[in-house]
């Protein structure tokens, strides 16, 4: 097998200055290869072609530790704005094989697109002059980011610490909640994902729990709010509903008999879905009743995502977050909101909690804040930060408050505010969701379209006219078809994911690019047998 390293010509990484001194449409971020004439970014690995790079899965099995994924067959040699570029064929006049439109922003992280020119410039200048310091030293980027971040967040989110990953930020947030309350039980939602660190993975229920040894004690679960696949017992007729939504009693606990009998959930599939609606409040209160029965009296916090992305792009129902905070307050718990994917404008608000007007006790950010670089944040109130300091809260890491990633985060926020990208994401999201719903109207294999702003989920079923049987194999064929046509949408067939495409392009995407991506997705559905076109 040829060595990857042996075929790479060492080239300097360009990008500190746009070509010809001026960015084109704000997006030319790397010096371009003048020989290709297509304004493409320079290929840093020109010696690698499809004929001399190794089989990637074979190479990975020999040299990389498997961390729970299957690698795609293409070797990506460059990325710019919305595009990923593969290695070229031998003798090709192009520096690349093909371009793939990235509708997941890398790992849901490249908020402004790959290799944004201003981000490249910040990375280059700080790598040269101010990259990493002793953790007890402060630098201008950290001060600037702390001030700018807290200025765009709701009042009550006053002070921040900057870390590296989403899992790390949730680990710190949970430790902070335990320190503040003096308690240890933490509640998560079913189908949640908060990271692979010890405490984070102990309170997530999408995947990663069956490790064969005890998790951190105190993890408890509320039902995952899923309007599309809610249990029959938590549906209500739109005109009837619960006998009395306002429950009373200690802790606001749900009481037996509060819910109308619906025939033990045995309605036929043919029953008109339009007659029913999801009763998330009854489901939540039922969940709290179980938690109160299980708790040993040490409830510290709830951690929740505004959109359960890994769980299938499920948006918390309107009013859910406010009721959740109310239930926390009744029990002396803190509310932690994990905005790894929803934060910094993607949903059409600076942070998704703004849609509900709810201020969490602790907010965590990651992914989008660093535009693909490892940067995360924990933000809380003065009161909580002060109490934690008095109680010797410790989260001293190698890269806490590092200047280089902090400078990137500060620039991300500057661009988002300056270019009004929050409003832009809202407008582009309306176009995206309209187009996806048009696809749903045409193809009976699309069971549900959901999301908010530039986050969308498209759930594939066998035939929505007869039921909601997950169409996992069909979804894979549609996804493979879209990828071959040049559009990457993340799809997982994990049982708690349900064969749902996760769509989250950079919020710098334009209307023309949204419509082009929708056209490719339409072509993928049209070209796969079993998608059940209705007209």
Detailed description of the structure:
- By secondary structure, the protein is of the alpha/beta class.
- Helix content is 30%, strand content 15%.
- It contains 13 helices and 19 strands.
- The protein has helices at residues 56-63, 105-108, 117-129, 140-152, 166-181, 198-202, 280-294, 320-330, 382-390, 403-418, 421-442, 472-484, 511-526; strands spanning 76-80, 83-86, 99-102, 159-163, 185-189, 219-222, 235-237, 276-278, 299-304, 307-308, 314-315, 334-338, 362-365, 376-380, 446-452, 455-460, 487-488, 490-492, 500-503.
- Strands 4-14-13-12-9-5-6 form a seven-stranded mixed beta sheet, sandwiched between helices. It has a four-stranded mixed beta sheet with strand order 1-2-3-17. A four-stranded antiparallel beta sheet has the order 15-16-19-18.
- A hairpin with a 5-residue loop joins strand 10 and strand 11.
- Helix 4 (140-152) runs parallel beside helix 10 (403-418), helix 7 (280-294) runs parallel beside helix 8 (320-330) and helix 11 runs parallel beside helix 13 (511-526).
- The longest helix has 22 residues, at 421-442.
- It starts with 55 loop residues before the first helix and ends in a 9-residue tail after the last helix.
- Residues 1-37 and 241-270 have low confidence and may be disordered.
- GO terms for molecular function: pyridoxal phosphate binding; transaminase activity.
- It comes from Neurospora hispaniola.
- Pfam families: Aminotran_3.
- Belongs to the class-III pyridoxal-phosphate-dependent aminotransferase family.
- This is Pyridoxal phosphate-dependent transferase.
């Amino acid at each position: 097998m040829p060595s990857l390293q042996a075929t790479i010509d060492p080239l300097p990484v360009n990008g500190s200055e746009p070509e010809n001194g001026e960015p084109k449409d704000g997006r030319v971020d790397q010096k371009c290869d003048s020989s290709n004439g297509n304004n493409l970014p320079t290929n840093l690995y020109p010696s690698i072609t499809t004929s001399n790079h190794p089989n990637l899965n074979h190479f990975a099995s020999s040299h990389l530790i498997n961390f729970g994924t299957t690698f795609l067959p293409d070797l990506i040699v460059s990325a710019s704005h919305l595009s990923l570029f593969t290695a070229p064929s031998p003798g090709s006049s192009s520096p690349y094989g093909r371009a793939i439109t990235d509708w997941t922003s890398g790992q849901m992280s490249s908020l402004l697109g790959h290799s944004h020119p201003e981000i490249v410039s910040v990375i280059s200048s700080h790598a040269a002059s101010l990259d990493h310091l002793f953790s007890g030293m402060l630098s201008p980027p950290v001060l600037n980011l702390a001030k700018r971040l807290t200025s765009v967040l709701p009042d009550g989110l006053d002070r921040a610490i900057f870390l590296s990953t989403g899992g790390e930020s949730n680990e710190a947030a949970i430790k902070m909640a335990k320190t503040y309350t003096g308690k240890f039980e933490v509640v998560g939602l079913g189908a949640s994902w908060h990271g692979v660190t010890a405490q984070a993975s102990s309170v997530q229920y999408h995947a990663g729990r069956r490790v064969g040894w005890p998790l951190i004690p105190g993890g408890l679960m509320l039902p995952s709010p899923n309007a599309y696949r809610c249990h029959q017992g938590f549906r209500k007729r739109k005109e009837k509903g619960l006998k009395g939504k306002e429950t009373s009693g200690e802790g606001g606990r749900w009481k037996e008999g509060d819910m109308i009998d619906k025939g033990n959930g045995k309605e036929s599939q043919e029953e008109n879905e339009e007659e029913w609606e999801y009763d998330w409040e009854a489901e939540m209160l039922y969940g709290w009743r179980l938690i109160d029965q299980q708790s040993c009296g040490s409830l510290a916090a709830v951690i929740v995502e505004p959109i359960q992305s890994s769980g299938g792009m499920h948006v918390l129902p309107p009013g859910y977050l406010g009721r959740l905070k109310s239930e926390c307050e009744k029990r002396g718990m803190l509310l932690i909101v994990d905005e790894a994917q929803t934060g910094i404008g993607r949903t059409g608000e600076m942070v998704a909690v703004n849609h509900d007007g709810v201020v969490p006790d602790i907010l965590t950010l990651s992914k989008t804040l660093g535009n693909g670089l490892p940067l995360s944040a924990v933000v809380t109130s003065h009161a909580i930060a002060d109490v934690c300091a008095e109680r010797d809260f410790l989260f001293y890491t190698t890269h806490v408050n590092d200047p280089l990633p902090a400078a990137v985060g500060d620039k991300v926020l500057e661009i988002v505010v300056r270019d009004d990208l929050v409003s832009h994401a809202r407008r582009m999201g309306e176009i995206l969701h309209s187009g996806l719903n048009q696809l749903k109207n045409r193809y009976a294999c699309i069971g549900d379209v959901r999301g908010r702003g530039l986050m969308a989920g498209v759930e594939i079923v066998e035939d929505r006219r007869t039921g909601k049987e997950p169409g996992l194999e069909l979804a894979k064929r549609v996804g493979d078809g879209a990828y071959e046509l040049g559009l990457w949408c993340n799809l997982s067939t994990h049982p708690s994911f349900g064969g749902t495409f996760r769509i989250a392009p950079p919020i710098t995407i334009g209307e023309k690019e949204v419509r082009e991506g929708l056209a490719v997705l339409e072509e993928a559905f049209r070209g796969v047998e079993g998608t059940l076109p209705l007209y």
